[in-house]
Structures are given as structure tokens and as C-alpha cells.
């Protein structure tokens, strides 16, 4: 009997340990699911609010979102173990500072060098604001989650950043890139002495059905009957009052939705008007640019025609210069001959050459060419004059010793 009792006791103890583990796992899963759901609601609320006003530090929607994101990044974060074996608390900024170094043009160094931000928690809150203004918060989170080795070193098992919810977190933060944020990095929101508290009331919605209304009436009746036996249900009041209140609340909610829709309609109409004005300006600028292109094409065509005409004129001048070179060569050759009968012809050609050269502009190249031809001809005439076929003078014949009279 004793052995049986001991066995049963040990079995109950094992069963209790398994129940505690399952309960802790269930609580961790519920906590992760709640934080991710509330984060999704806060992102949608921020996007809706940004359509009507600028999001800054005074916006309650942003303050709630910052608190939710801080809770998510701090979920099951490991402490820092000292040399003496004690574990000191750690902020999510220690993880972001290491895991987001690979982001191009990151703001890690600038936040580390901020003078008015000293604590690690305040630096983390400043990083959230700077990343939102830079529209890179989703990129930071995605880069940090891809570094699984660093994430595993900073977080315990069951953390949100280690589970499947991490991919959902990076995706839902991508919608915040469409919002223009404006923050002051010297405000009270960066105070790192107090933890962030999430306000769940904006995301809680309770609608009372008709069954619950009837149950409330029954409870009121039972409470009235327990006070005195002679009391009747009519003492509580007619149930139509609660119906009227419920209808009044419904009408109020419908009116609020209508006003919100009307404001959105006005905003969209104004946005459409601005886009139409931009489109008309773009069309007019496009027409002006097309007209400029046509004018430039016409100018290019005229310039091309002028250049072609100049080329043709230069070719004609070149031909005339070639004919002038030939004529100068003939004149130089004719000057070397000793026949006096050609003198008139030479003079005529020379006059013709002078008339031609009066209308043309001399160039150094043509003058050099004419000079070379003249020099060659003159050289040939000189060699011809030095030959042995020269005329005998009568004086030599008279003085010759072989012709003395007998």
C-alpha cells in the first residue's frame, strides 16, 4: 500500500509539472497573440489619424503605438550577466544597436552621440522616433530579425521576435512609411525612468445584444422582488427606456461614422482637385517642351542646309584654285621659251591671269605652288642656255687666226 501511495504521489507530481509547463506555454502564446493584435490595431489607427492631422508626440495614438512596440521588443529579453553572476536588466536598445548595424545609412551612431539622452531605454525610444521620421522602421526590424544568431543571443525561448509573429510584425510596420511624422527628441516622451504602459481601451469594443438586455431586466426584477414581496415588475420601469437608449447610442455611432466619412470625402475631393491641377500643369509643360523640340529640329535642319551650301561653295572654290594652278604653270613654262612670236600670247595669258587673280583671294598654299613651278621652269631655261648650241658672234670670226688674208 505504501508503494502504491508513493507511486500515485509521484505520478501526481509529474502530472502537476506537465500542467504547469502547458499553462506557461499557453500564457506565453496568448501574450504574444495579444501584443501582435494590438500592434496591428494601433498601426491602423495611426494610418487613419494621419489623414486628418500630423502625428507628433502629443498624439495619443502614437504614444500607444510606441508603448506597444517597446513591449514587443522587450518581450522575454535576456538580462546582462555580470562577472559576479548577477543578472542586470537590459533594454531593447542593446539589441537594436548590435543587430541594425548592417542597415545602410543607419542612425545608430547619431543616437549614441545624443547629449540629452543618457539611459538605454531613452535611446531606444529616440530610435523609434527617428526611424519613423526616416520611414525606415520596417527595414530596421527586418534586418534585425534576419540576424537570427544575434536575436537568439539576446532573447529567451518564446519571445515574439523568435516566433512566427516576427514576420507579421515586419509586414504590418511597412504601412507606417506612408505617414509623415514630426517629433521633438527633447520631450518628456524620451524619459527612460518609467516603463511604457499600453492603453487597451481604444481597441476594446463591446456590443450588447438583445439577449443580454433581457437578462439585465430579469436581474433587475429579481433584485426588486427580493426587497419586498408586494413589489411588482412595474416598479422597475418599462423596458422601452433601455431600448430607446440603445437606439440613441446606435444613432450616435452612425452619426459619427457619417461625419468621418464626410470629412474623408472632403479630403479626397481636395486631393483630387490638387491632382487635376498638377495634371493640367504637366500637360501644359509637355506642350511647351514639344514646341521647343520642334523649334530645335527646325533650327537644326536650317543649319544643316547652310552647312551643305557652304560645302558646295568651298568645293567650287577648290576647283577654281586648281584651274588657277594649271594656268600659272602654263604661263611659267611659256616665259622660259626664247621665241619672240609667243610674247604677245604670253602677255595675253599674263593679263588673263592678272584678271583672274584680281577676283580671287591669294592663299599661301597657292602662292607656294606657283613659286615652285616657276622655279622649276627657270631652272630648265638656265640649263638650256648653258648648252653648247649657242650662236657664234661675228667678232670671234673676224679675230680668228685661221682667217688671215693671203
Q: Percent helix among the residues? A: 55-70%
- Strand proportion, as a percent range, falls in under 5%
State the separation between the terminal residues, measured CA to CA. 197 Å
Report the biggest beta sheet as strand number plus sense, adding barrel if it closes: 2 strands, antiparallel
Task: Figure out the total of helices.
Answer: 13
What value does the average pLDDT take?
Answer: 75
* Major beta sheet, strand line-up: 1-2
Question: What is the gyration radius calculated from CA atoms?
Answer: 54 Å
- How many beta-strand runs? 2
Describe this structure in words.
This protein has 406 residues and is mainly alpha-helical. It is 68% helix and 1% strand. It has helices spanning 2-50, 60-73, 92-99, 108-112, 120-134, 137-146, 148-154, 165-172, 210-227, 240-336, 343-359, 364-385, 394-398, and strands spanning 80-81, 87-88. A two-stranded antiparallel sheet has the order 1-2. Strand 1 (80-81) and strand 2 (87-88) form a beta hairpin. Helix 3 (92-99) packs across helix 5, helix 3 (92-99) packs across helix 6 and helix 10 (240-336) runs parallel beside helix 12. It starts with a helix and ends in an 8-residue tail after the last helix. Residues 1-14, 226-242 and 360-406 have low confidence and may be disordered.
